[in-house]
C-alpha cells in the first residue's frame, strides 16, 4: 500500500480530526511566534489554505495573534481577511501596515472586497477602497449601493456572455481569444439584444458539441434569473432547491448585471443556519468565539432579561396559589415537572415549525393541517406522560386526587405547548419578523405560566 | 419598463414569497385533482421544477396526494422521487405503476439512484434495481457497498480525467471526441500513471489557453482529494471551507474512483443543519411534516421521557426541602426563576459550543480558553441578574436575607450552567457522540437540579 493510501485510510478512520490543522503544526507555529522565528513561521504557514490561517488566528489569544501578524506581515494574503470572522477583521486590519493592506486587497476579486469592507467603519473602508485600482473601486462602490444582504452585494460583476444567436464555434473562438476571463466560471450566459439573460450553456456542453450547433439548442432546462435586490437568504434557497451552479443577476429593467456562483450561495446557507441556531437559543447572532468576555455577556444578556421578566411573571402565577402550597407542599415539589415537560414539548414544536418555515415546507396551504397535527401530537404525548406522572405522583404521595390533577394538568400543558410552539413562530413570520427569534424564552415562558396555572389552579379547586 | 422587469421588481419586494409556488397555482392544481381533470393538471404541472412538485406532494394530505399521483402517473419524473422527503418516498413509490417507476428511475444519474434506494425496504429496492440497465445496476450496487453517509455514496462514478502530461490541445480534442460526458462537470482531473489524481484543471482555463500549454501548468491552487470512506459531513465542511467546486474521490489505494460536486455537498450541509437543529431541540432527526400523528409523537417521546426522568430527579431535590418550603412559601414562588435563568444560560452556552465544534472553531488548542471565557460570561451575567432578582425579591417579600440568598443562588447557577453547557457537548464529542444530542433535556436538567439545590439549600441554612 502506498504512503498516500495509508494516509487516506488513516484519515478516514479519524473523521473527528479531518480538516483540522494537526496539533503539531499549531504548536510549532505558536513556538515560532514565541521565539520570533520569522523564517520558520513562513515555512510552516506557506502550505496552509487562507481559510485555515484565518481559523488559526481566531483560535489564538490576542497577544499571539498580534505577534503572528507582525512577523507574517510581508506575505499577508488578502484572502485571509476574507475568511476571517467579521468580529476580528477590524482588529487585524488595524494591525497591518497600510502598504501591506493595500497589496493584500488588490489581489482579491471585487465580490470578496465587497464582503470585506461592507461591515468596516468609515476610515478603514476608505483606506481599503483607496488601495484599489479605479475600475475595481468603482465596481465595489456600485455593489455597496445595493441593499445589505442582497444579491447585488453577493454577485460578481464579471460575466461571460454571448448573443443568443451564436453557435458553439463562435462562442469557443470568443472564449479562446478573450484575455480577461474570470477566475471561475461555469456557464456562458446567453443574452438577447436588450441584454436580458435568456439561457445558460455549461462549458461541458459547449466543449462536446460540433461548432455549427446553435447555443440556443444547448441551454440548461433549469434557469433561474435573480433580481439584484433579492435577499441573499432566498438566493441560497434557490441554489439548494434547484441545484443551480451559477445564476445571472438582473437589474430592475431585467438587464444582466452580474452572476452569483454556488460557492457564495453555500457560504450564505451556512451563515443563515448559524444565525437561526443562535437566535433560537437566545444568543446574539453576531457573537463569535473571539468575543471578549463582556461582549459575549452582552450578547446573551438581552434574552436573559426577557427570560427574567417572564420567569417573574410565572412566579406571580405561583404566588396566587401560595395558600394551596402551604396546605400541601407536594404541589411545590411536582409543579416544575409539569412546567418542564411543557417547555420541552413547546421547544420541539417550535423548532419543527421554524425549520419548516425556513425550508418553505410550511405554507398557507398546509398551515392548518400542520397545526392540527401538532396539537394532536401534543394530545397523544399529553395522555402518555400524564398517565406516567400520575402513577409516579400517586405512589410517591399516596393521594389519588393529586395524581388525577397532575395527569390533567400535564395533558393541558402539552396541548398548549404544541399550540404555542406552532403559533408563536407563525405569527412572527406573518409579521415579517424572523421566526427564529421565537426562541426558548418566549415559548418556555408560555408553557411555564400555563403549566403552573393549570396544575396549581386545578389542585386548589379539587383538593382543598 | 418591460413585463419581466416589473415581475422582477415585484418579486424582490415580496421576499417572503420568493420561490414559493403561487397559491393560485396550488389551488388550481388541487381543483384539477379534485375534478379528475388530467389535461388541466398536466398543463399546470409541466412548467414546475421536480423539487417544487416534491414540495407540493409533501404539503398535500394523503388522499389528494394519491389522487394526484394516479392522474399524473404517465409523466411521473424520476427526479420528483429524488427530491421527495425520505419519509414519503416509500408511500409514493408504492403508488406508482411498476412500468412507470422503471421508466422514471432509468432517467436518473447513478448517484441520485443511490440516494433514492439507500433507505428503502428490500423489496422496493430490488424493484428499482431491476429496472436499471446492467451497467447502472452494477454502479449503484457498488456505491451501496460503501458505508452509509460516506463519500462513496455521495460521489458520481463518471469522471472526466486526463493523463498529467497532456497539453490543452490533447484535452480539448479528447473532450470534443467523447460521446458520453457527464451531464455536469467542471474540472478535468489530472491523473498519474497509477490513476492517482494529481490536480484539477477548470474548463474555463482549458478554453482560454493555447493548445500547446501543458495541463500541469493550469492546475488549481486548492486541490483536496477525498477518501471514499470519509463521512459526508466532513466532505461538506471541506467544500465550504476551501470553496471547492468539485473534488476527486479515491479508494484505499489512492486511485481515482469518482468525483463529488458542490451541489451534492450543499445538500449535505443543509441536511446536517436540519439534523443539528432538530437534535438540539430533542426531536427525532428523521421526522418530517408529512409524518403521521403517531410517528411524530414517537419522534418526540424519547426526549420527553428523558426529560420526565430528570424532572422527577429535580422534584426529589425540592422534596428534600419540603419543611423549608412549608415554613416559607416564598421559596416555592421564587425557585423556578433561578432554575429557568440557569436553563436559559445553559442552552446559550451549549448552542455556542455545539456550533463551534461543528465549524471546527473549537479545538484542543483553545478549549481551555473558551471554557474560561464561558465561565467568566456566566459570572458576569450571574452578578448582573443576581443583583436584579435580589432587588425584586427584596421589595416583593421584604426579607433582606431572602434577597441575599436568591442573589447567591443565581450567581452559582449561572456559572454552573456555563460549565455544564460547555462540558456536556465537549464530553459527548470526545466520546464520539454527536454533541448536538446534548440537547435541551440534558443541560436544563443539570441547571434545574443545581438551581433548586443551591437556592433551597442556602435558604434552609441561612433563613430557618
Automatic annotation (TrEMBL), chains A, B:
Q: Which UniProt keywords apply?
A: CBS domain, Cell membrane, Magnesium, Membrane, Metal-binding, Transmembrane, Transmembrane helix, Transport
CBS domain span: 155-217, 218-275
- Parts of the chain that traverse the membrane: 301-321, 327-345, 375-397, 403-428, 440-463
Q: Where in the cell is it found?
A: Cell membrane; Membrane
> Where are stretches of biased composition, namely Basic and acidic residues?
1-17
Which Pfam family name is an example for this entry? CBS
Q: Does the keyword Hydrolase apply?
A: no
**Per UniProt, what is the membrane topology?**
Multi-pass membrane protein
Chain positions covered by the region annotation Disordered: 1-20
**Taxonomically, which superkingdom?**
Bacteria
Q: Which CDD domains match?
A: CBS_pair_Mg_transporter
What GO molecular function annotation could you give as one example from this UniProt entry?
Answer: metal ion binding
- GO CC entries: plasma membrane
Q: What does this protein do?
A: Acts as a magnesium transporter.
- Family (UniProt): Belongs to the SLC41A transporter family.
**Quaternary context:** Homodimer.
NCBIfam families associated with the record: mgtE (TIGR00400)
- Its recorded name reads Magnesium transporter MgtE
Q: Which organism is it from?
A: Pukyongiella litopenaei
Its gene is mgtE
Amino acid at each position: 500500500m502506498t504512503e498516500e493510501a495509508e494516509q487516506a485510510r488513516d484519515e478516514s478512520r479519524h473523521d473527528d480530526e479531518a480538516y483540522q490543522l494537526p496539533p503539531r503544526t499549531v504548536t510549532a507555529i505558536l513556538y515560532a511566534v514565541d521565539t520570533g522565528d520569522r523564517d520558520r513561521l513562513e515555512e510552516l504557514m506557506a502550505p496552509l489554505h487562507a481559510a485555515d490561517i484565518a481559523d488559526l488566528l481566531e483560535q489564538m489569544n490576542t497577544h499571539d495573534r498580534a505577534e503572528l501578524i507582525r512577523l507574517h506581515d510581508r506575505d499577508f494574503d488578502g484572502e485571509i481577511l476574507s475568511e476571517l470572522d467579521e468580529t476580528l477583521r477590524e482588529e487585524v486590519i488595524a494591525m497591518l501596515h497600510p502598504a501591506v493592506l493595500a497589496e493584500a486587497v488588490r489581489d482579491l476579486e471585487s465580490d470578496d472586497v465587497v464582503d470585506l469592507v461592507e461591515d468596516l467603519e468609515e476610515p478603514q473602508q476608505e483606506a481599503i477602497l483607496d488601495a484599489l485600482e479605479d475600475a475595481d473601486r468603482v465596481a465595489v462602490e456600485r455593489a455597496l449601493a445595493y441593499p445589505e444582504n442582497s444579491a447585488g452585494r453577493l454577485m460578481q460583476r464579471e460575466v461571460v456572455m454571448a448573443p443568443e444567436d451564436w453557435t458553439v464555434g463562435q462562442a469557443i473562438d470568443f472564449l479562446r481569444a478573450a484575455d480577461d476571463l474570470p477566475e471561475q466560471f461555469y456557464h456562458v450566459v446567453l443574452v438577447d439584444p436588450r441584454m436580458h439573460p435568456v439561457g445558460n450553456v455549461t462549458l461541458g456542453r459547449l466543449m462536446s458539441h460540433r461548432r455549427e450547433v446553435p447555443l440556443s439548442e444547448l441551454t440548461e432546462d433549469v434557469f433561474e434569473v435573480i433580481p439584484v435586490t433579492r435577499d441573499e437568504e432566498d438566493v441560497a434557497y434557490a441554489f439548494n432547491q434547484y441545484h443551480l451552479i451559477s445564476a445571472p443577476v438582473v437589474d430592475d429593467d431585467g438587464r444582466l448585471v452580474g452572476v452569483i456562483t454556488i460557492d457564495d450561495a453555500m457560504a450564505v446557507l451556512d451563515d443563515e443556519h448559524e444565525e437561526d441556531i443562535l437566535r433560537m437559543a437566545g444568543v446574539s447572532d453576531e457573537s463569535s468565539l473571539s468575543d471578549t468576555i463582556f461582549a459575549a455577556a452582552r450578547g446573551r444578556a438581552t434574552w436573559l432579561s426577557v427570560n427574567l421578566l417572564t420567569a417573574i411573571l410565572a412566579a406571580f402565577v405561583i404566588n396566587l396559589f401560595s395558600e394551596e402550597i402551604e396546605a400541601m407542599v407536594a404541589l411545590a415539589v411536582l409543579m416544575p415537572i409539569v412546567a418542564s415537560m411543557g417547555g420541552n414539548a413547546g421547544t420541539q414544536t417550535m423548532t419543527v415549525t421554524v425549520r419548516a418555515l425556513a425550508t418553505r415546507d410550511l405554507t398557507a396551504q398546509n398551515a392548518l393541517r400542520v397545526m392540527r397535527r401538532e396539537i394532536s401530537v401534543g394530545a397523544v404525548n399529553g395522555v402518555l406522560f400524564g398517565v406516567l406522572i400520575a402513577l409516579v405522583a400517586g405512589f410517591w404521595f399516596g393521594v389519588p386526587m393529586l395524581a388525577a390533577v397532575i395527569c390533567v394538568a400535564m395533558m393541558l400543558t402539552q396541548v398548549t405547548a404544541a399550540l404555542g410552539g406552532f403559533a408563536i413562530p407563525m405569527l412572527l413570520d406573518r409579521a415579517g419578523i424572523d421566526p427564529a427569534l421565537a426562541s426558548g424564552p418566549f415559548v418556555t415562558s408560555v408553557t411555564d405560566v400555563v403549566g403552573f396555572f393549570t396544575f396549581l389552579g386545578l389542585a386548589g379547586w379539587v383538593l382543598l
